[in-house]
Amino acid sequence: MIRFDRNELSGAFGDIGTDLPLLVGMILAAGLNAGSVLITYGLLQVATALVYGIPMPVQPLKAVATLVIAQKIAGPVVYGAGLAIGLVMLLLTLTGLLEWLANRIPRAVVRGIQFGLGLQLSLLALTSYVSSGGVTGFILAAAAFAVTVALMGNRRFPPALPVIGLGVVYATIAHYDPVALASSFGLSFPSFAVPAPGDIGTGLVLLALPQIPLSFGNSILATQRIAADYFPERHITVPRIGLTYSLMNIAAPFFGGVPVCHGSGGMAGHYAFGARTGGSVVIYGAMYIILGLCFGSGFTSLIRVFPLPVLGVILLFEGAALIRLLADMVPMKRHFGIAVLVGLLCVGLPYGYLVGLVIGTVLARVRNE
Asked: How is the chain split into domains, by residue range?
């Protein structure tokens, strides 16, 4: 049953440190319509929450976002890539190949993928976010960190609300400009478009192929594993996650939405900050819908005033929640070693998630023989 209470409200901000910078980066780099991106993204969050009933959030595809931001890939190609990814994942799901592959990936490898993603998120938080505001940023981050540690696990006073409040207060004091705020307001609605065949093909080669191994490892396998860890009574399967993943990406490009996925990091973040139902994801999605509808035209200017160090602390705890899942491998020394190796390969190598997936699976099979 979906709930709406202070814990769900707190959990709603558990993934914002990952999502928001990637969304802003893609909007700026690819020249996307901010209103369309935000509204579509918010609607997908709400739909996912209603389908699953647990904190199963939607996230931007990380490999796609990184390539779009680094190479400034044009918007039509981004939409084409989303449709290509959705069609490929739908084919894998309907043919049963996705489940067949999932049944052959050892649990230690999945834990290693989660460990690697947790390391990546934690390193990103420390190197790019926390350090971005100079001395003031470190002070803000230290205060947010102390509040989070003091309140982590507290169901009466969940931590994300005071942490986000700290960021809002700082942004208001340091950057409040009523003229700029007023100018950023204006109604926006999603724009409908059909991806061209050429953009679908280009998006498949440039963006979809690098993304699919990461999606299989983190968005499908690791997400199913963490759902089983946190909500075993729900019996959420790999094919079900693959189906909703594919349908989201098939629909989103037609409304100006970016390629998206489910993610173990997102669920870990929502759960760590208090969420236990899909209510947190509904709240999170509603925030993006309101931002897109009311501030789509001036969104990029408005969001830049929020202090990145505060987002970095949220991202750091999201990464820590994933790393902590490695604990059940510790008693099994062989499996623990494989999981750690897979995580380090994911972080340290190009296409590390694919390399880690293959090498970890081979090692696990050899050791079990």
From this structure: 6-324
